Amino acid sequence: RINVAIDKVSGERSKLGAFQNRLEYTVKNLRTTYSNLTASESRIRDTDMALEMVEFTRNQIISQSGTAMLAQANLIPQGVLQLLQ
User: ∠ CA(17), CA(20), CA(21), 5° rounding?
Assistant: First the structure.
């Protein structure tokens, strides 16, 4: 009887050990997946930020070019007036 009980306890302990190993493996995989997802999200957000900075710089250049062209266009009538005087 005692040997049978010991065998049953040993069998259950083996099953529990195997189950614990599977759980630990699953937890490790979930942590790795979470880490990979976090890294991917960071790369996507960083890429979006870089794209936004490029677009912002482009718009600034266009705006400054327009301002410079207006300044030059305003100088032309003044130059003509000076020639006429």
Answer: 90
Collapsed DSSP state (helix, strand, coil) of residue 1? coil
Total number of residues shown for the chain: 85
pLDDT, the chain, mean: 90
Q: What end-to-end distance do the CA atoms of the chain give, in Å?
A: 126
Alpha helices in the chain (DSSP H): 2-84
**CA–CA distance, 43 with 10 (Å, rounded to integer):** 49
Residue type, 68: A
Residue-wise pLDDT tens digits, 14-26:
999 999 999 999 9
State CA 6 to chain mean position distance: 55
DSSP 8-state code for residue 61: H
Residue where the block lists tokens 């069998």? 11
pTM strictly above 0.70: no
